[in-house]
Amino acid sequence: MASSSSYNSPCAACKFLRRKCMPGCIFAPYFPPEEPQKFANVHKIFGASNVTKLLNELLPHQREDAVNSLAYEAEARIRDPVYGCVGAISFLQKQVQRLQKELDSANVDLIRYACVDVMPSTAAVSVPPQGLNSFEASTAAIAPPANRQRAVAPMGFSGGGGFYRQTPQPVAFPLPWSETPSGSGDINEEEGNM
């Protein structure tokens, strides 16, 4: 019964083009009579013959997505004749960048709070393991315990601006604040000799 009523009322495309809607009409499944503006927008931007060619070249299961995409692009072009859907994409990309900055800021705050929480519990462990240089010894004294690191690490995000823990690498050259081989590491003593 529903199929006979669909043949009686032409699809939105055939009604717009003022032609008889045949049973095998390629527009009928995608432009129902209840949505005349959908085809009017698509026709205004792309033209009926171009849409017919496009739908004939596609496989039947791809046609609905193509028509939805054409309808979206046509509506965006009518709302914004200069930029069309590119304007909407640009707006959304700016919004994603803004939200990524907020996420990065929140991740920095999480790291800061996690480090403040970890620092008092590791202050008692100040004796570095034997055989470490001064840089490794200073980082070993403030490094969080293994179980604390596992508790904080899953909160990070992989990909696109998230945070991650990085293990300190040994430095191949002496740092300005490390002990010098000659034993005189005080800057004031060196300035006094000049």
TrEMBL record:
InterPro entries: LOB. Pfam families: LOB. Coiled coil: none annotated. Transmembrane segments: none annotated. Residues 9-110 form the LOB domain. PANTHER family: LOB DOMAIN-CONTAINING PROTEIN 4-RELATED, PROTEIN LATERAL ORGAN BOUNDARIES. Belongs to the LOB domain-containing protein family. This is LOB domain-containing protein.
